[in-house]
């Protein structure tokens, strides 16, 4: 599912929240900071190293917007090349990071080790398929294509009217001037909303017809508060011992 965190200009970071997010989303991390007409980025597979570098760099450059991303891999290889943020069309002046599931158009095909977000950043979105995002039509088109996903774009390209764009804002939450794409920035025992059993404590999807212990949107387990692939509620049932077939001619 990933955790995408957005910091407006001047917002200080909460490293504790980033550590919780990295523990829940361990498949690579990255950040971007807008400063002085350029974007500083960093990527890595070790959360503590990337978070420490981000904290130090953000303290030196606090005046521009920034983002941090921790990945929970669903498509593409688990390696450094698939860590967000990605350059838009290879242009270092514009980067993006995403949380959610993108349409099939950008899903990797056989033998393509890229993630869906990386494919979108490299192959699909550079062509502005919905028009410029500074127009109403372009912004609505991109938002509609994203669906329930969240996307942050940072840019120093003068072709854009702003340096930061946040899509899917309502699907996340603002806490202390920082925007988080879901609740995985919280300690594990606080992510699940106990009194709202129809609302996933991870992706916040509301499902009034949920019939199993799992969120139908992201696979989160309402019982052990883990992703489906890491659910510890049900142990593997023991297999029955094979029954020997009777020898031919015996009854």
Description of the structure:
The chain has helices at residues 15-24, 47-60, 116-124, 136-146, 188-191, and strands at residues 3-7, 29-35, 38-44, 66-70, 86-88, 91-99, 150-155, 164-167, 173-175, 178-180. With 251 residues, it is of the alpha+beta class. It has 2 domains: 3-187, Aminohydrolase, N-terminal nucleophile (Ntn) domain (Glutamine Phosphoribosylpyrophosphate, subunit 1, domain 1); 192-236, no CATH class. A hairpin with an 8-residue loop joins strand 7 and strand 8 (164-167). Helix 1 runs antiparallel to helix 2 (47-60). The chain starts with a strand and ends in a 60-residue tail after the last helix.
Furnish the topology, listing elements before pairings:
Blueprint: E1 3-7, H1 15-24, E2 29-35, E3 38-44, H2 47-60, E4 66-70, E5 86-88, E6 91-99, H3 116-124, H4 136-146, E7 150-155, E8 164-167, E9 173-175, E10 178-180, H5 188-191
Antiparallel strand pairs: 1-4, 1-10, 2-3, 2-4, 5-6, 6-7, 7-8, 9-10
Helix pairs in contact: 1-2
Q: Please, what is the CATH homologous superfamily of the largest domain?
A: Aminohydrolase, N-terminal nucleophile (Ntn) domain
Helical content band: 10-25%
Shape: globular
H/E element order: EHEEHEEEHHEEEEH
**Coarse structural class:** alpha+beta
Average pLDDT rating = 87
Question: What labels describe this entry?
Answer:
Glutamine Phosphoribosylpyrophosphate, subunit 1, domain 1, alpha+beta, disordered C terminus, single chain, 6-stranded antiparallel sheet, 19% helix, 251 residues, 5 helices, 4-stranded antiparallel sheet
